[in-house]
Amino acid sequence: MSWFGWGEPAEPVHLPPAAEELLRAELRADDRSTPPVGLDEVRLPEPRLPARAAELLEHAVGAENVLRDRLARVRHAAGRSYPDLVRLRSGDASGAPDSVVLPGSREEVGEAIAICAAEGVAVIPFGGGTSVVGGVEALHGPFEAAVALDLRRLDGVVIDRESLLATLGAGLTGPRAEELLNEQGLTLGHFPQSFEHATIGGYVATRSAGQASTGYGRIDEMVRGLRMATPAGELVVKPVPASAAGPSLLELAVGSEGVFGVITDATLAARPVPQRRSYEGWSFRSFPEGAAAFREMEQSHASPDVARLSDEEETRIALLMSSSGSAAERAGKAYLRARGHEGGCIAIVGWEGTDGEVRRRRARTRTHLRHGGGVRLGSRPGDAWLRSRYNGPYQRDVLLDRGLAVETLETATTWSRLLELHAAVRGALTTALSGRGTPPLVTCHVSHLYASGASLYFTWIARREDGAELDQWRAAKEAAGDAIVAAGGTITHHHAVGRDHVRWMRAEVGDTGLEALRAVKDRLDPRGVMNPGKLLPDDAG
Amino acid sequence: MSWFGWGEPAEPVHLPPAAEELLRAELRADDRSTPPVGLDEVRLPEPRLPARAAELLEHAVGAENVLRDRLARVRHAAGRSYPDLVRLRSGDASGAPDSVVLPGSREEVGEAIAICAAEGVAVIPFGGGTSVVGGVEALHGPFEAAVALDLRRLDGVVIDRESLLATLGAGLTGPRAEELLNEQGLTLGHFPQSFEHATIGGYVATRSAGQASTGYGRIDEMVRGLRMATPAGELVVKPVPASAAGPSLLELAVGSEGVFGVITDATLAARPVPQRRSYEGWSFRSFPEGAAAFREMEQSHASPDVARLSDEEETRIALLMSSSGSAAERAGKAYLRARGHEGGCIAIVGWEGTDGEVRRRRARTRTHLRHGGGVRLGSRPGDAWLRSRYNGPYQRDVLLDRGLAVETLETATTWSRLLELHAAVRGALTTALSGRGTPPLVTCHVSHLYASGASLYFTWIARREDGAELDQWRAAKEAAGDAIVAAGGTITHHHAVGRDHVRWMRAEVGDTGLEALRAVKDRLDPRGVMNPGKLLPDDAG
């Protein structure tokens, strides 16, 4: 990962001519270049970790595991949200920690936390650093100093093959965890877009959902046990399959975003590596038609593992972006036009498992999609999606180099309110940005299905307001967040709360809900050193 | 429901001659009769609700909804555990509340709680009164008076058909909720053995699992939203399908057993009423063989909706209990003997859904069971199980009349430890009771499957120790509980904690876990009026 973005893709990202044309025509993009500053131009605050705290931390984890160099601090200064990247690229690393601490065991995590709690140093747990909601910015709270606790050395694995459980160290990245599991013929099946960098601890702490969550489940459905080091001691949730022994402490730790403590390992459900993956595209006449088909399919237990439905605008732009102008493409368009699907929506569905399972489930899914008005487009769109499933953040880097703003946000609600929520958020984003003179492209897809509802994932792209990038972003963010709350959506389906969604937490969970969370925080972290400024609004204290 | 037991069954419960013979031969049961005392002989403590509190409560809910009569107090004195029934039948209603309050709305629940918190009166939320862990006994804690808050008047229903969600009042019983849902073509599919009396609020507050939880899911998998009145205000969890907005407050309220507040309604996932139910019996050579077949089936996503596997002892006794001595029965036994299944285990499996779903899923399940060594016994055992699925508590009443003790307890663990746990609990119960001169029959079945493990449900029957019934029960309970903890099981899979499992809560959730729960309790119920003595050990305060 680069210090200012997502990093070098395996294959370079190019915008096809049709995409260039679109950006010019609809966003008034020009050819200006807006590259990041050099690393040596980045402005870092003076490190303020008191000598005594530094000495104690060095004693606890080894001096070589307490880093203070420029690159380490810049790399831990921010996550990978659009405002994070705007600031980093402009040379603003004011969110950097004073030091980066790399504990080598869960005991060392406990010691480091105890030292910080005693010395009054803020602790920011750090996994892959991929937060898009400001979750890893080193806010100091009331403390003079803050350290990032980088968990990369917690990389152990213990597998219970018979129970299909894997206890994984918090610092394992997605690819490394899969590699270790694959050696035993297993997989987690958890593939968020941040997969290449995100970690097990981050998945669990942020209540993450992978792209295949419709089939494999969200991380909260996979996690069976965990350990979390807190200033008040270690919370251990044993990995029993189910229990009626009171409220779920597992579900209290999942999604706690480092404000109660640091998740050091998690026991997750694993599955056999699928023999086969089969992905394909479908077309629907409209977003409401596709959503109804998805609902009926999910409620009939006929869903695939991956199910995504782009709205009309996302479909239009995706088709432009991938247009080659070939004869086959023209024939395909003519076919869809003849079926009344011009200007419609594309869906991607995918099954994973044994040959037999894939065949059987695919037949069922297809029956339901056909019944819901869908037309099958074959495997090419599915394969193309699979190849590009992690490309979004790389593409964003390219667009940021071109004077554009790119932001994503997501929510979920019941089926009965889904279309209302879709219209409300699209409208809010369009109005807020157009009002600033930067009319956006706003696209959306459904990507996680439940019997009672679904998620909506929005992307907006607009010409960047030079010198007021963060104001522009904030105007859009606030408009979208307010619209989500008003339309009955959750303020986040899988990106978590971090710093950026704190202002809506009271609307989300209410006064009594906030009191309950605050009570746990106060008991487990009485001095308040754990990840200040995240998840819980200060005014609830 | 009768005041001293489960009540009159639709058809009278008779013990067949073979069962009589078994009890005589193996438990030294004789023909003595041990009926309950009469209602007028029951000893009730003097009611101590202060006049001011009574007046305020009457003002809040109406004078006609504050009950003090003998029958009302006796009916709210205890749940339906074996020790509860021992005490009630002997005329001991020392667990009775001073009054029974019946609020008519969630606002009235809130008012009643606020009054009790202000006046220092303990509040015991009361649904169907079916707790088997002492969850509804009116323990007073440090307070002079205690009221049972009977929620039967909270009986509303709101259905969102499109999202397959039903918001149900806490006081609706299982049959009434099903009736209301069936009118719309829907069902919850939640059928615990207590179904006939238990309520929606009780299901959620105790983290209940129905007999068909392998297919329909546990109540914690069905619940999407809820409202809980607490002394600190109302907790409202909105029914979004999923959220990453921090720790799950839903999962903090589910299983809270009235110690934080009173759940007033819950939004639950509903399903179409199944067109068809198909149940059948299978035989396995041994419990380990059957458990391995169930594991493989569940991990292959091929499970039915109901999956139960009796161990050898439960199978032996069930066969004796249902023996008719017919030629068909003898032929069946000869067939199983020839297949090497003599002395083996019986399983019940059942599918529900559309005709097509049942056919398709049944074929898959059967393939896996056959592959695991199972022999199909046809639909008769399945139909017999369906007919008698709620009979257990009625049979218990009959056995209690006959000088016997009957107790059930349950746990769950990972597949890799299941057989160890099974042996440990069987051994502990046998040793503890035999040591007291009352060697028991100990039977067990697996009844809820998960990819990572399963539940174990134990029943023991022994000759009752006259005059030391509760000591006998306690010796068995402690031996079983200690064995469960030592063997890595959860202290309860679906009966909840109540009063009877409190002593193992520290072992279950650890010091830090208890601190977290205690913190929420202290914040939401600072005076501690909510259901004192349940769920949380006093020593953690």
Give the gist of this structure.
Chain A is of the alpha+beta class and 541 residues long. The first copy, chain A, is built from 19 helices and 18 strands.
End-to-end separation of chain A = 37 Å
Q: Spans of chain A with pLDDT under 50 lasting ≥5 residues?
A: none
Mean pLDDT of chain A: 95
CATH class of the largest domain in chain A: Alpha Beta
Number of helices of chain A: 19
Structural Rg of chain A: 23 Å
Going across the major beta sheet of chain A, what is the strand order? 15-12-14-13-17-18-16
CATH A-level architecture of the largest domain in chain A: 2-Layer Sandwich
Task: Give the biggest sheet of chain A.
Answer: 7 strands, antiparallel
- Which chains make the largest contact? A-B, 87 and 87 residues
The CATH topology of the largest domain in chain A is given as Uridine Diphospho-n-acetylenolpyruvylglucosamine Reductase, domain 2
Strand content of chain A: 15-25%
Quaternary assembly: homodimer
Total number of beta strands of chain A? 18
Helical residue percent band of chain A? 25-40%
Shape of chain A: globular
So, the CATH homologous superfamily of the largest domain in chain A?
Uridine Diphospho-n-acetylenolpyruvylglucosamine Reductase, domain 2
Structural class of chain A: alpha+beta
How many structural units, i.e. domains of chain A?
Answer: 4
